[in-house]
Amino acid sequence: MNFGIALHGGAGTILKKEMTLDKEKEYLFGLEAALSRGEKILSKGGSAIEAVTETVVELENNSLFNAGKGSVFNHLGKHEMDASIMNGKDLNAGAVCCVEQFKNPIILAKLVMEKSEHVMLTGNGAMEFGEKMNCEKVEESYFFDQLRYDQWQSIKDSDHFQLDHSINNPKKFGTVGAVALDQHGNLAAATSTGGMTNKKFGRIGDSSIIGAGNYANNNTCAVSCTGSGEYFIRNVTAYDVSCLMEMGGLDLKEASDKVIHERIKKIGGDGGLIAIDKNGHIEMPFNTEGMYRGCWSSKGIKKIEIY
User: What's the pLDDT tens digit per position in 21-31?
Assistant: First the structure.
């Protein structure tokens, strides 16, 4: 039985000329640490759900990525996070939107999946549920990052928002995600984000929407997306990959490429996705300058790349 895992830390205009050697090493090290965590779980016979959860936790705990600790500032100067998780075995899923102070939103999303009768909880209700479940909370200061703060300060009095890690570069889609196939043939996907800098009105992107930014089905594949969320929602992008495989007879590469290089671009969207199918094949297409990504397979494949 072939099994494996893939992860991403966001896509966008990641220009090599703006990346210092030290910063590049930090990103590669962060991706490597998260990938290793998932790889160990799968190698020991652990579940795909456990592998994607722990992989995303590792990325949420790393301030380089716009999720968890590294989440950007919203219009009010707070950190408002979204996350979702899906089990391909039974199509069970959990999602949270607009939550604050929870250290690992992906764990909260998993609790929604496992401990509630619902799929998606938002705002105060999601936070009330999280407290009831004793999900770990941290002080607001835990999420502070100088780069993110400076970026917010530069646009906070305007109606602008940014999808970015760097001040110079307004097109970096900071979402993290993981997809996995375990030794038992089960697929899972998990996605988490801090959203947009200076976002208003309780904006929700694709990361917490099942079928848009996250999807898993044992019959086809598991998918986690990163990009211009509004376009991924309109195109139901994550499900689109699965649907093209199940209904259209395409393989994972054909379906993933069609979705990212044709269907999402056609309506003006950009970004990328990671996907793994029921046979352990992995695809990581993107239509931007780069995407923080990595994958590992029991067949001996291991890659960590940015450009």
Answer: 898 999 999 99
Name the maximum alpha-carbon separation found in the chain.
55
pLDDT at 41: 98
Q: Give the pLDDT band of residue 12 (cuts 50, 70, 90).
A: confident
What residues are labeled active site?
Answer: 175
* DSSP-derived secondary structure for 17-66: GG--HHHHHHHHHHHHHHHHHHHHHHHTT--HHHHHHHHHHHHHT-TTSS
Listed by start position, the domains of the chain span 4-305
CB 270 within 8 A of CB 287: yes
Q: Read off the pLDDT of residues 96-115 as tens digits, 9 standing for 90 and up.
A: 999 999 999 999 999 999 99
Can you tell me which residue has the tokens 């652990």?
46
- Using alpha carbons, list the distances in angstroms from residue 283 to 185, 216, 232, 278, 289: 18, 14, 18, 12, 17
Note the pLDDT tens digit of each residue in 42-54.
999 999 999 999 9
- Specify the CATH superfamily of domain 4-305: (Glycosyl)asparaginase (3.60.20.30)
Using alpha carbons only, give the angle 118, 278, 84 rounded to the nearest 5 degrees.
25
CA 214, CA 179: separation in Å to the nearest integer? 9
Closest among 7, 2, 3, 41 to 305, alpha carbons compared: 7
CB proximity list for 4: less than 8 A, separation 6 or greater: 42, 180, 181, 276, 280, 282, 295, 296, 297, 298, 299, 301
**Single-letter code of the amino acid located at 179:** V
Q: Are 225 and 211 in contact (CB under 8 A)?
A: no
The β-bridge partners of 305 are 293
Q: What is the pairing mode between strands 120-122 and 92-99?
A: parallel
